[in-house]
Amino acid sequence: MRNLRSSLLLILPLFAGCQTLADLEYKDPVKKPSQRLQGEISREGDQWLLRPCQEQRRFVLSDGEGQDNLKDLASLAADGQNSLYGDFKGQLDSSTQAGVDGQFNITRRYRVQGEGHGCDDPNYKRVRIQASGHEPEWSIAVTSKGLILNRPGQEALALPYLEEDLLQGRRNFSSAANGQQLELWVAPQRCQDGMSGSVQHLSAELRLNGQVMRGCAYYGGAQGD
């Protein structure tokens, strides 16, 4: 009886070891970290390539599930806009394909465009949210220190603001200063600029002294998300 008990004690650690190995074998793989990349976009054959700003590396762009970024790029190119710019969040994968440095799997589009500032935007890193619209023309840059309202024929107006985070990723910025009543609402929604054709990831609504104006918006480099 004593020998049987001793044998069982010797076997138990083996079962424990097998269980540990099994847990390791079937454990879910570690999810790759996401990163944000901005850069120039070009087309080679049936592939779209992203060259990040101030870099020489090139990555093949791949759409994530439910994404239409490559279709948007094709539409912009079809309109004769050959110099394209993109700002995306996604995951990098290594690639064995010659001539490229990997594949970038897009999980979020901030904007794609063929006009306007891209890698040369001097304000990108300090802006949290950039919003703009037409008829009438307006633009708002939200920074950590305040917001700046620009309208044609008028001086830029700098205002303090209050921010409210709402459900489903919506945000509200409001200001009642310098005789202005201003509210900016942004919400996660594909938004295409009717004049430039650029596609951004936020819809925007500006309410200024009772006047309602609509447009598009995107997160700048200073916005964490």
TrEMBL record:
<keyword id="KW-0732">Signal</keyword>
<feature type="signal peptide">
    <location>
        <begin position="1"/>
        <end position="22"/>
    </location>
</feature>
<protein>
    <submittedName>
        <fullName>Putative lipoprotein</fullName>
    </submittedName>
</protein>
<keyword id="KW-0449">Lipoprotein</keyword>
